[in-house]
Predict the structure.
Amino acid sequence: MNASDESKIEPKRRIQFAFTDEQEQFRSAIRRFLNDKSPTIEVRRLMATAEGYDPAVWRQLSEDLALPGIHIPEQYGGAGFGMVELCIVTEEFGRALLCAPYFSTAVLAANAILNSGTEAQKAALLPDIAKGARRAALAITESDGNWDPAGIEVVATRDADGYLLDGVKSYVVDGHTADLLIVAARTPETVGREGLALFTFDGHAGGVERRLLESMDPTRKIARIEFRRAHAKLLGNLEGGATPILRTLDQAAIALANEMVGGAQALFDAAVNYAKLRVQFGRTIGSFQAIKHRLADMLLDVELAKSAAYYAAQAAAADDPEWPALASLAKAAASETYLQTAIQCIQIHGGIGFTWDNDTHLWFKRAKSSEVFLGQPGYHRELLMQRWGV
Amino acid sequence: MSKVNEAEIRAEVREWIAANWNPDMSLVEWRGKLADSGWGMPQWPKQWYGRGLPLALARAVEEELSNVGAVSVAKSGVRLLAAATLLEHGSDPQKKKFLRRILTGEDTWCQFFSEPGSGSDLAGATTRADLNGDYWIINGQKVWTTSAHHADHGLLLARTDWDAPKHEGMTFFVIDVKQPGVDVQPLKQMNGHASFNQVFFTDAKVPLENRVGGVGEGWKVAMTTLAHERRGADGLPPPSKRGTRVGRIHAEERAETEKANQPYKWYPQRAGRVDLVIDRAKETGVNRDPDVRQEIARLMIMAKSAEWTARRARAAQQQGRPQGPEGSLGKLAASNVARAASRVHTMITGTEAMLTGSASPRDGIIAEILVSVPAVSIAGGTDEIQRNIIAERVLDLPKEPRFDTGPFRNVRKN
């Protein structure tokens, strides 16, 4: 009791500009795991399946590395770390393009439960998520692809033992396989940000049609979900409104920004390596200033986006009041950088970079889909301006 | 260990300050005391006006001095680059002759490196030094020389051997600027300021004892100067915070700072003045324009990310980790930020961007930004050179084939 009182009056955690030795070791452990489990031959195998992940690898990353609950407090069965560690995981996963229901389960759904659930709900839902025994997905966007919760149209109507959901959700990451769906919906006859709440829905129950969409990025599966008088439970209460949804989206934007800079780094490394190997006109192409300067600019771009992504994660971990604005800043920065790096990486590879056999397109497609996932850069730049009061 | 030492050092310097500091002294007299006691540059060697202290303790000394509002030794301009070069490569008589007067501020220094024909390619210098009896005779032209019009001495890089390869035929000198063979002309820039000079040498004389380092070793010596230049910020001295302090010494220091800062007045503008952007958007009302909002956001994202990248580089350094790529990127990032800021200022200012001087918003500051930003991607190493450095030193990419090997006489020049 005393301890928690003290922690409240302690000064806010300072923003760190370097990772700690423990964090670096954690990163290395994940990287070793991924070198072993997620070479591109595996990525290519899994992206061609409907499920899109390897249950054995998911079990290992859950049981051996405890990654799905890395940021979940210990009292709910997690490892008790925070946003910075979660973002180290997503950065490394983005770098290796791991095919796994991690972003959906750990980043989106677990944070939604943490932000919205009652004590009893957190205690009931989170331990299984932390262990990797329950894969979950968060359904916010609908067919119009709007990331502003004000546009939500799925309706939740009160009935005897909970709520009935009606309407269509789309772009739900891993929505076709999740054991648990968390659905943002509104109570009848409300508009805008009023009347919004999150609901939990057992993925294996009836009243729902889940359809895998053909996604440009086959390493990230997305689904359309149609609810017809589907029985759901309220997650938390109706008073929270849009707040927990927005908080979850902002956290997700930061985690995605870190995932994107991981991917950008992989593309950049591939471009540098190729420039050192490829010979034309009797010289490696990396000796031409046209290529050297392009690579120098790419490095600058990647490092700047990393700084934004890292800073946003640190700010969220420190609960700096500015962190939601920084979430938008980091998302916009990383989106532009990831896609530009992918485009330049293809360009440096020349013709081979446009072939299916070359791996660059795997990251290019992740870059393209991440650019619009959770909102386009322009949307986040506008959010940034609003949040800074411009 | 440094805990005990630091307390002792602080006590010692406090005692010395109490016995010596007096704001009614002349600047030169006080700085002479600082130099002779070694408290002015505690990190310098004991025999040369220092105390051989590690940098961390030197900072503690500096702190004690500034706590009582005591003036420091002279640090502005090129003088400390000159001192660092002399400490490393100078002879004892040279150190004796020049170092103390550098610290007291009695002598001002400038740097004769760049030439009209060798900007990025500094080693292509063609200003010549020919041995004639007791003197080296200097002929040629240098450019971009800050403070040459009031400098006493210059660091000079000149060619002494035209048959040696480019980097091996140069020698480093200290030249007396105030002599008949040295003609200093201000160089007016496109933004109207004249922060630099071009300097013509016609049979100017350098006595033999003013050669620094060996004949043909000029490039190596110049590298020391340049390394210190890169380590320091921008040559831009910090604004004086002692504006209101009373006493003869403070008045003299203010006058000195004013003179030293004169060439750099427009430097904040050349960096793009990102700090003004949001206020300007609000005061003009264009903060409601969605296109402008997007551009402001892009700029702020880049500027913030660049700032955090510099912080990451510093944090890594403080933790003793090997420097990552983030440390080499600052200059290029600053160019990009400045250019983006200039574009956004134009968008915000609209048609008024056609005006200049007091007709331009913010008493001409906006116009000065627009015509000063082109300097930022050139001064101190062009963006192209920065990219080469990043590509070759950070990414380990191969160098371009060279065409300037062999005797310098035969190398193609401007």
